[in-house]
Amino acid sequence: MKSDEFFTLVRSWLTIYLPRSRRVSPHTIRSYKAALNTLLAYLGETRHLTLEQVGFEAITYSSVSGFLAWLMDARHLSASTANQRLAAIKSFLSYCAGEEPALVAVWLDVKRIRPARTPERAPDGLGMAAVEALIRAPGQQTAHGLRDTTLILLLFDAAARIQEVLDLTLADVSTVPGRGQVTLTGKGRKTRTVPIMDKTGRHLEQYLDLFHPGPRAPEKLFFYTIRVGRHQPMSQDNVAYLLNKHAGTAREHCPEVPGRIHAHQLRHARAMQMLRAGVPLPHIKEFLGHANISTTEIYASADNQMVREAIQKAAASAPEPAPIWKGPKDLILRLAGLK
User: Fold this and answer.
1) Which of 38, 71, 203, 253 is the most exposed place for a label (fewest CB within 10 A)?
2) Cα separation of 247 and 75, whole Å?
3) Within 10 A of 59 (CB to CB), how many other CB atoms are there?
4) How far is Cα 95 from Cα 335, in angstroms, rounded to an integer?
5) Helical H segments across 212-322, by residue range
């Protein structure tokens, strides 16, 4: 199928089917759009395809499987984020199969791809030493350094999801000392207003003076990139790239900074910091925007696990007690309830 037919279906999916037929939120549409743009970037980088050359013949089990691996290895996305990109591609192909029967085979081929495995573990929040090193890493000698410092600091201080920060407008941000706050729009278009530290407010003011000089339109995006001379939204991939670039610098001063880093680790770190400061779980739940407190309770479990690991480490140097199960074979079996 030719490139123009491919992009015709892309346009109708994004502009007609998703918003009108499915009533999908603008946030989800942006996420789907980002997935398709990233797929096009992958095909250009690894298959050397120009936009004019991209068609459904380039979308196969092999290419999309490679795309999933590339997202994690080259773009440093977490498995869960990469799986969201894969789900978006599958959703698009499902729509295409419904519009054009000849594309059913393409959809079924890609549908067989299994999502990347996501480890089942407690939230991997950064330690405070790593957080501080990461915030300091960009420096503030350049405009981009100031922007990146402000972005990282706000992600941590507001314990915000990455898209929540990228969706902020000027109207959503208040830097009044002692009353600084940001209004975040989370999942299901639910909004919550969270306080920010005065230190964060001062950084936001510096950022505003540099990146939003003159009259400030309330509806303008707080963070942005410039393409073709125009303000454009930042993508999650942009932020993932910046975080890992600065993590390399931070690691030189703080070995605790992990080899791969993602924005959610800052959110986890803030939640753990609040928990250890004695903030009740219901308050943390509201701060994080969790729908159910059982999600928030994971942090309490994670903290208990850290305590348990510390106890086990301390016990490693203690003398071993005498074996409990020692004696005649029949006696051991009876004690164990096996006879």
Assistant:
1) 253
2) 14
3) 24
4) 63
5) 236-253, 264-276, 281-288, 293-315
- Look-up of token digits 């003159």: 214
Length of the chain counted residue by residue: 339
**What are the two backbone dihedrals, phi and then psi, of residue 23, each rounded to the nearest 5 degrees?**
55, 40
Same domain (yes/no): 156, 267: yes
Question: Which amino acid, residue 28?
Answer: T
- pLDDT the model gives residue 18: 92
Helix, strand, or coil (residue 206):
helix
pLDDT for residue 299: 63
pLDDT beyond 70 at 25: yes
139: domain CATH number is: 1.10.443.10
Whole domain around residue 29: which residue ranges?
A: 3-111
Q: What CA–CA distance (Å, rounded) separates 162 from 159?
A: 9
Helical H segments across 141-235, by residue range: 143-157, 162-166, 198-211
Range name among 179-193, 232-246, 250-264, 306-320 with the lowest pLDDT average: 306-320
Half-sphere exposure of residue 137: CA atoms within 13 angstroms, side-chain side: 25
Same-domain pairing of 145 and 281:
yes
Q: What is the pLDDT of residues 142-158, one digit of tens each?
A: 999 999 999 999 999 99
Can you tell me which residue has the tokens 């594309």? 103
* Contact (CB, 8 A) for 83 and 65: no
pLDDT attached to residue 22: 87
pLDDT tens figures, 166-205: 999 999 999 999 999 999 998 777 889 999 999 999 999 9
If asked whether residues 295 and 247 sit together in one domain, one would say yes
Better pLDDT: 35 or 284? 35
pTM here is: 0.59
- On the 0-12 / 13-18 / 19+ scale of CB atoms within 10 A, 165 is buried
